[in-house]
Amino acid sequence: MLEIILCSLVTILPDYLYRRYRQGKRFGHEITLYSVWFELRFGIITCLMLTVALITMIFYYHPSTTSATLYFRSVPIVPEVTGRVAEVNVDLSAPVKQGDVIFRLDGAKQEAALLTARRKIAEVDAAMLAAQADVMKAEGQIQQAQGDYQQATDELNTKRDLQQRNPGIVPQRDIEKLLVLQTGRQGALDAANAAKQSASIRVTALLPAEKASAEAALAEAQVDLDKIFIRAGVDGRVEQFGLRPGDVVNPMIRSAGVLIPDGAGRRVLAAGFGQIEAQVMKVGMVAEATCISKPWTVIPMVVTGVQDYIAAGQFRGGEQLIEAQNTGRPGSILVFMEPIYKGGLEGVTPGSSCIANAYTSNHERIASGKVGSFKSFALHVVDATGVVHALLLRIQALLLPVKTLVLSGH
């Protein structure tokens, strides 16, 4: 309607003025309700053509969409293990800080495993004391074996000296017995040294390795026990948290609830524009938005990102070929907008539906002086028509509460 009124000022109105004051035709006499088309046909046709061209130019260079939403990502509250809920620390809706315990699972099995691991460490410590005693015992046995060996050696050397000084005074049988005794006591000494080495290896290598394994098992048991405490990963708010003691949660099938991080849905507005506007939407374009949850407010924004892909065209490889006719309605160009001023989205509820406009600006091209006069004038016209779309957005913002509360029938 606004475009028709604007176009009629330069088409129908001049045509009427020409016929009224140039041709002398009067409204109600020569120009009647039945002769309007015949008398003003040139102005009416020109007005309609100019209106269609103006609407096309406005909606192409200054696109608008009602598919704009403050999307936000919720964090699922999912335990790492399956278990039965033993304790719930938050209500149906409550704020939480990072690290707060949201709920606790039954941890009897994990506590038993932790106690077993601690007992294993105590067992290894006791074995360490016993091994140290074995080392001391082996040292005593070595000293005893060394004394016995030295005694047998001394007796053997004495018998040999006597035999050399006075042959026949010592029977050969006694010398052979002492040799056998010396060899046996040498074996006992070697056995004592081996026993000490074995006990030393047990103290310095085997038992420390067993203790390290037991400590690792203790740490693993502690980690498993910590998993029964489900904590908040970020600062946020738990909403619609109906979990109660006795419920069974499963990380693969059933989550416990959702956590909405602080600031979620308060930074970026995602808007879907038509595919025909793909060549117009650019990063840096000035935009405006008005949201249902904050009526009568127009938020200045700027385009910060344009998705290069249309989601409606994606597919997953499988055993069936793609049939283009089965594709639904054409997808849209996803555009990300952020408020120009800090706190611009304050008061807008995350997830709220919005209406957004984006405006093409050719100021830099015109100021560069690289375009001709006619093209510069045309670019001025394109930029100026953005005022019409901005006015339409403000009219929508003004009528949005009326449309929602009165005309929707709710």
Report the helical percentage.
40-55%
- Portion of residues in beta strands equals 15-25%
| CATH 4th-level superfamily of the largest domain | Efflux pump adaptor protein, beta barrel domain
Q: Count up the helices.
A: 9
Low-confidence stretches: none
The CATH class designation of the largest domain is Mainly Beta
Q: What order do the strands of the largest sheet run in, or round the barrel if closed?
A: 1-10-13-12-11-14
Oligomer: single chain
Characterize the overall form. Answer: rod-shaped
Give the helices and strands as they follow along the chain: HHHHEEEEEHHEEEEEEEEEHHH
Q: Can you offer a commentary on this structure?
A:
By secondary structure, the chain is α+β, with helices and mostly antiparallel strands. The protein folds into 4 domains: 1-61; 62-72 and 263-313 and 330-403, Efflux pump adaptor protein, beta barrel domain (Elongation Factor Tu (Ef-tu), domain 3, Beta Barrel), CATH 2.40.30; 75-103 and 229-260, OB fold (Dihydrolipoamide Acetyltransferase, E2P); 108-226, Helix Hairpins, CATH 1.10.287.620. The protein has helices at 2-9, 12-22, 36-39, 41-61, 108-165, 172-226, 363-368, 373-384, 386-407, and strands spanning 64-69, 75-77, 83-88, 94-96, 101-105, 229-231, 236-239, 248-249, 257-261, 269-273, 286-291, 294-306, 333-339, 353-359. The strands form 3 sheets. The chain has a 6-stranded antiparallel β-barrel with strand order 1-10-13-12-11-14. A 4-stranded antiparallel beta sheet has the order 2-9-7-4, with no helix packed on it. The longest helix has 58 residues, at 108-165.
